[in-house]
Design brief:
single chain, 256 residues, mainly beta, 15-stranded antiparallel sheet, 2 helices, 7% helix
């Protein structure tokens, strides 16, 4: 395993192998669902534990946490820990965090941090979304060209915040578009929600979940499964060149 295990996660986020050509059609067992019958999960504090796989092999675990500070201020954290195989030997770990304001129709990022740790690797990057000045800027262990200020636009999202926005915005059969601004980069992310829910087996549990997948990622695919009543994705999968890369499968969650 390489340090690709530590790349920023879009819950896919980490989000079983699904060929790109098959994603426009409902999965076997999927049922079309009127939008009025879909109840998106509400933003609420929680702690969720995921089993982490890398290229189909168990590699460790991950914890996602959403914390309500005060007023409209919230924080979302993700920690991925390598415990098995090469990841365990190297002690690979990734920690991400975003502080944001909940403005109802949009989540507004305020600050972001990413820490990567391994036996011979240690990197830390922090960023600030200065909405008064209209710019975002990062500093730390990253290239100089990615430390320049980036003009902000209303609705801009960090990597972790994007996952929560997808949970809030996804509706059966509807496309979604976001502008991603994180770690000195700007990208347009386009997603599509499946026409209906499908049964997703995660360990011993079975969920009736809505699949949401990125449509403009090229060889890099991002897929999330969202279930009614569950405040976090039940599965997050990232695929590279047609093969599963990072796969997070929910094993437990509880209110925080």
């Amino acid at each position: 395993m390489t340090t690709a295990f530590l790349k920023p996660l879009l819950l896919a986020g980490l989000l079983t192998a699904l060929p790109v050509v098959a994603q426009d059609a409902p999965q076997a067992g999927a049922m079309a669902l009127p939008q009025a019958e879909w109840d998106p999960p509400a933003l609420e504090p929680f702690v969720a534990t995921y089993q982490a796989f890398y290229k189909g092999k168990e590699a460790g675990d991950a914890t996602m946490r959403v914390v309500h500070n005060e007023g409209s201020r919230w924080r979302v954290d993700l920690a991925v820990r390598g415990r098995r195989g090469f990841a365990g030997v190297l002690g690979l770990n990734l920690e991400q965090s975003t502080v944001f304001d909940n403005e109802g129709a949009v989540y507004v990022p305020l600050s972001q941090s990413t820490v990567k740790k391994a036996l011979f690797l240690g990197k830390k990057v922090t960023g600030t979304y200065n909405w008064q000045d209209g710019t975002a800027q990062w500093q730390g262990d990253l290239k100089k060209e990615r430390q320049h200020p980036i003009p902000l636009q209303h609705g801009d999202q960090s990597a972790l915040l994007l996952n929560l926005s997808l949970m809030r915005d996804a509706r059966p059969g509807q496309p979604l578009r976001y502008r991603y601004v994180d770690v000195g980069r700007v990208r347009q992310y386009e997603y599509q929600a499946a026409a209906g829910t499908e049964t997703v087996q995660v360990g011993d549990l079975s969920y009736d979940a809505l699949r949401v997948y990125r449509t403009n990622g090229g060889n890099d695919e991002t897929i999330l499964w969202i279930a009614n009543g569950v405040p976090t994705p039940v599965r997050i999968l990232q695929r590279e060149d047609g093969e599963d890369a990072i796969d997070l499968r929910l094993t437990e969650y509880q209110g925080a």
